[in-house]
Amino acid sequence: MKDITVQFLGAAGTVTGSKYLVETADKKILIDCGLFQGVKKLRQLNWDPMPVDAREIDCVLLTHGHLDHCGYLPRLVDLGFSKRIIGTAPTLEIAEIILRDSAKIQEEDADRANRNGFSKHHPAKALYTVDDVETMLTQFKSVDEDQWIDLAPRIKARFTYVGHILGATCIELEVLGKILVFSGDLGRQDDFMMFPPKTPPRADFLFVESTYGDRLHPKENIKERLREVVNQTMKQGGTLIIPSFAVERTQLLMYLLWQMKMNKEIPEVLMIMDSPMGANVLKVFQNHKKWHRLSAKDCNDMCASFKMTKDYKESMAFIEDESAKIVIAGSGMLTGGRVIAYLQHYISDPKTTVLIAGFQAEGTRGRQLLKGASEIKMYGKYYEVKARIEEIRGLSGHADQQGILDWMSKLKNKPDHIFIVHGEAHSADALRSKIESTLKWDCHIPELWEIDEL
Ligand SMILES: [Zn+2]
User: Fold this and answer.
1) Distance from the CA of 126 to the center of ligand 1, in angstroms?
2) Of the residues 339, 357, 391, the one at which a domain ends
3) Rounded to whole angstroms, how far apart are CA atoms 270 and 289?
4) How far away, in angstroms, is 122 Cα from ligand 1 center?
5) 71 C-beta neighbours (distance < 10 Å), count
6) Cα–ligand 1 centroid distance for 393 (angstroms)
7) What percent of the chain shows pLDDT beyond 70?
């Protein structure tokens, strides 16, 4: 066996479940610990045994707080992992918010399945609970950006700003003299709220994401498009439902809608932000000002222009009031959360518009709607889709193909090896051929469970 190996325990050949296990003779380090999401076959992987004993892992390093990068942590702890979970302060705050919410949704879904008796498991069980999350939180340890931290003799790590969401970084892991760089999810050069991503000086082995590896972001005028969709729906007296990721996307949509309302580009209409998680993320924005572009005043004014729901009862009151309104609610890929309750009520009403404002993984309800599904299944029941389905593509928090290439090409050396991860097959392959033709660097697209010697 070589001195260093890496095993791909997720986000290989797919977007979700990010987990890379770096192993030396006596240390095991896990980079990210994400949940598999999307089609049933993928979600089943969250329940299957891992090929490594959780009790033997020495630490987990987090690139950022999205569920597909940290959502498996409570399960890992439940399986016996008892060491440190390391990330930047905003990353850990966001991970806490996201994991509490994830546990709650899983408990609620299991309860509902048991009440309605439609689950195959008897009784239906949550993957983890809020109590599991509480235990996990005691293992969090925050680190500063741009500082090397020692993990073990001849193993150290550094976290570098990549602007994808609040707190997001790539990770440089120096192991026995080799530098492994994990891109995490890369942000954009021209983001409304985040600063551009920074590239580490060098990498011997590069693990680069490829979510948008096969395309360029459309040059769509985002404000114009959003204004058009809002005004069209309001003219019909309908409800505009925007399923949104709670982190960054929700705040960005709030920011754009608030500006349009102030400038009288859209009518005075009830605007609802129905995501307790989204509200908590706003607090993280206020706690960590150097990580984003918004001023404290912008944050406050923007919040004041929205009704934020406190509990499910309040959501139900908004749902039953059928007057025209704009609703931003999670989850972003319609895999669960409050937005499902709105869809159950409004998806079969032709006055409704559903505006998809982010990446939709295969197998999710969001992807089904974009593909023109005539009905979708929610909590065991089918609903006819009569609402208009619209999409804004330019809002992504991910770098596109050019953005990824620009980020990589700032490395001062040619890496020995490049692994393309975190993308569906066609995206990863398109990025591979682009890198090979422009930078002349050889790339490899690993498969799930693959072990490589470095
Ligand atoms: Zn992400």
Assistant:
1) 23
2) 391
3) 29
4) 33
5) 28
6) 16
7) 98
Residue pair 82/59 in contact (Cβ under 8 Å)? The answer is no
In the reported structure, the alpha carbon of residue 66 is separated from the centroid of ligand 1 by a whole-number distance in angstroms of 5
Ligand 1 centroid distance, CA of 451 (Å)? 24
Res. 7 pLDDT band, cuts 50 70 90: very high
**pLDDT tens-digit readout, 363-422:** 899 999 999 999 999 999 999 999 999 999 888 889 999 999 999 999 999 999 999 999
- If you measure from the C-alpha of residue 313 to the centroid of ligand 1, how many angstroms do you get, rounded to a whole number? 31
Band (300; pLDDT cuts 50, 70, 90): confident
Q: Tell me how far the alpha carbon of residue 63 lies from the centroid of ligand 1, in angstroms.
A: 9
Number of domains in the chain: 2
Residue 115 in this model has a pLDDT that exceeds 60: yes
- Residues 78, 162, single domain; the answer is yes
Q: What CATH number should be reported for the domain holding residue 405?
A: 3.60.15.10
Q: How far is the CA of 314 from the centre of ligand 1 (A)?
A: 30
Percent of the chain beyond pLDDT 90?
Answer: 77
Question: Residue 97's domain spans which residues?
Answer: 5-215+397-453
* DSSP class of 195: P
Statement to judge: residues 201 and 248 lie in one domain: no
Q: Please state, in angstroms and as integers, the Cα–Cα distance from residue 302 to each residue in 167, 200, 250, 265, following that order.
A: 21, 35, 12, 16
C-alpha 164 – ligand 1 centre gap (Å): 7
Whether residue 387 is found in the same domain as residue 413: no
Instruction: Tell me the CATH number at 368.
Output: 3.40.50.10890
Q: Measure the CA–CA gap between 421 and 424, rounded to whole angstroms.
A: 9
Same domain assignment for residues 253 and 196: no
